[in-house]
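Regression test case RT-17, inverse folding.

Input:
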């Protein structure tokens, strides 16, 4: 429970002080409740006297009533956290997760499935808030009330107290078994839920392909295995704890029977007043109730711990460190100085001893085979990761000494695979600068050749683009992403082959948009079509994580045996390729 409490305090975030106060109030309420039950002893003792002293009897009734009133007031204070802070804790947890995801190193983020993170931010955050608001106070009652009542019973008669102590010790192994089985079971359930969520996202996004291949429907081989596994994990988690729960409850019930039997024997031997036995039995019933409930509630505690652990796993990921001595870059040239980088779990580095300089306001093209390290170079420039050795500089500043958010203020990125949000065209362009005016957004759209197709739409810039931009063509999506980059107006532009998947007409429109984007910028472009970068100031041929060649298009063609010349010849040959007629 110390572990769960630590996780709860982490999840409570800025509301941890209020959570601690609520726990203190809950402890006080549980102690007052136990004291109220303890008043039955003197009250029943007084009522069992031959000469009942009415004044004393009413005194103890008054004490009981006062304690119940105090407990009620404390419970009202305790419930304030549930009603006033539950939704705030949920919101704070999700905001904390969002902040952690935003600062998380890109390779760590890429390691996590989208469905898994959706499950953490959605279901696990809700479960965590419920644990804070309800289960935490319930746990206090399950511990505090039996503890105080147990002390009262031992004080009344050590022999009856010994029966309850023995019963508690006998029930504990069952509770521990429930805890162990539930812990494993609910972790498996959480993993299965995350896998199912991830596969559902994949299924929805890939539905056109699944339909085309006849793999859609309830028995889809992409969906059924994870659904079956999820059902099996849930059933196994419930079955595994059933017998230990029943065992713990049986032990507690037998304890009450044993207590009555021992007490009856003591009364018959005239070694225990009947009033004390009655009071002990009443108190023991309240003592046994939380113990019996604890066996069942352990499953919920373990479910909460599994959810809290998954949240803590995301919150504990450390962002990229910011080295001391950073400053604002004065110029925007880019330098790689003996840079070596390997992804986590990779046996061989993706880049080894890479050195080059991109002059300010120049265009450098990265070419080479797939997997050679081109995309890794752009990721290091934007500080999605840090090299294991060497330095990447923007101007004269080591970007390792710059906050990633501050660095990205100076960089605009246009990816090959465009991601648009299910919002309006205006909103998607304005992501680069939320405070931009409509006139500035339209100017960026005109520069990116977006205005020409937007003007034909019924709602123009207020047209929704659909999920991931599904209502638009590939060329239209790409031009919107370029408009976004133009609006940002960053001094450094990274392009990841933005025309590779476009038809000829769309490529021409996008290329014109790119020309407007890169004017007077420091540009690094990943290129597969060499014809698009013949005018680059510098071409870097990346091969096997190293810079194999560098120079202008003319310089590199002069080396007829070089890698670039062979790539150029191969692409020229492809232009003459044609589909043969049927039957030939």
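Golden output:
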């Amino acid at each position: 429970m110390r572990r769960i409490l630590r996780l709860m305090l982490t999840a409570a975030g800025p509301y941890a002080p209020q959570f601690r106060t609520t726990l203190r109030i809950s402890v006080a309420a549980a102690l007052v409740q136990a004291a109220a039950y303890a008043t039955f002893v003197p009250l029943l003792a007084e009522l069992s006297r031959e000469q009942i002293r009415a004044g004393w009897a009413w005194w103890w009734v008054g004490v009981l009533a006062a304690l119940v009133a105090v407990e009620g007031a404390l419970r009202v204070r305790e419930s304030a956290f549930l009603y006033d802070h539950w939704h705030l804790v949920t919101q704070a947890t999700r905001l904390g997760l969002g902040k952690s995801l935003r600062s998380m190193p890109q390779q760590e983020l890429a390691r996590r499935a989208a469905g898994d993170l959706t499950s953490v931010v959605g279901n696990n955050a809700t479960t965590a808030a419920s644990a804070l608001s309800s289960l935490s106070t319930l746990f206090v009652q399950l511990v505090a009330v039996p503890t105080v009542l147990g002390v009262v019973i031992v004080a009344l008669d050590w022999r009856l107290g010994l029966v309850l102590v023995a019963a508690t010790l006998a029930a504990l192994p069952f509770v521990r078994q429930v805890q162990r089985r539930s812990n494993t079971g609910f972790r498996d359930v959480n993993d299965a839920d995350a896998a199912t969520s991830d596969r559902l996202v994949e299924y929805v996004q890939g539905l056109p392909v699944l339909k085309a291949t006849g793999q859609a429907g309830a028995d889809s081989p992409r969906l059924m295995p994870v659904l079956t596994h999820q059902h099996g994990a849930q059933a196994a988690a419930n079955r595994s704890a059933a017998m230990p729960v029943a065992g713990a409850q049986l032990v507690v019930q037998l304890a009450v029977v044993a207590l009555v039997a021992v007490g009856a024997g003591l009364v018959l031997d005239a070694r225990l007043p009947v009033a004390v036995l009655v009071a002990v039995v009443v108190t023991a019933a309240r003592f046994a109730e939380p113990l019996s409930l604890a066996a069942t509630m352990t499953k919920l505690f373990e479910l909460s711990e599994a959810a809290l652990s998954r949240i803590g796993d995301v919150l504990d990921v450390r962002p990229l460190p910011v080295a001391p001595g950073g400053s604002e870059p004065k110029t925007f040239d880019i330098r790689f100085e003996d840079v070596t980088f390997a992804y986590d779990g990779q046996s061989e580095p993706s880049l080894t001893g890479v050195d080059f300089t991109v002059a300010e306001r120049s265009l450098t093209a990265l070419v080479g085979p797939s997997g050679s390290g081109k995309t890794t170079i752009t990721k290091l420039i934007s500080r999605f990761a840090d090299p294991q050795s060497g330095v990447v500089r923007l101007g004269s500043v080591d970007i390792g000494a710059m906050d990633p958010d501050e660095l990205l203020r100076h960089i605009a990125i246009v990816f090959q695979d465009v991601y648009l949000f299910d919002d309006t065209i205006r909103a998607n362009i304005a992501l680069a600068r939320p405070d931009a005016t409509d006139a500035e957004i339209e100017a960026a759209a005109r520069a990116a050749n977006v205005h020409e197709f937007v003007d034909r739409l019924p709602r123009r810039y207020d047209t929704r683009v659909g999920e991931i931009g599904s209502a638009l063509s590939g060329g239209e999506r790409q031009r919107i992403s370029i408009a976004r980059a133009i609006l940002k107006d960053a001094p450094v532009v990274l392009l990841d082959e933005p025309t590779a998947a476009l038809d000829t007409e769309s490529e021409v429109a996008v290329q014109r948009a790119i020309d407007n984007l890169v004017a007077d910028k420091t540009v690094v472009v990943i290129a597969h079509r060499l014809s698009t970068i013949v005018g680059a100031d510098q071409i870097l041929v990346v091969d096997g994580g190293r810079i194999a060649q560098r120079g202008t298009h003319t310089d590199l063609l002069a080396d007829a045996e070089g890698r670039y010349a062979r790539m150029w010849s191969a692409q020229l040959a492809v232009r003459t390729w044609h589909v043969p007629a049927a039957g030939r």
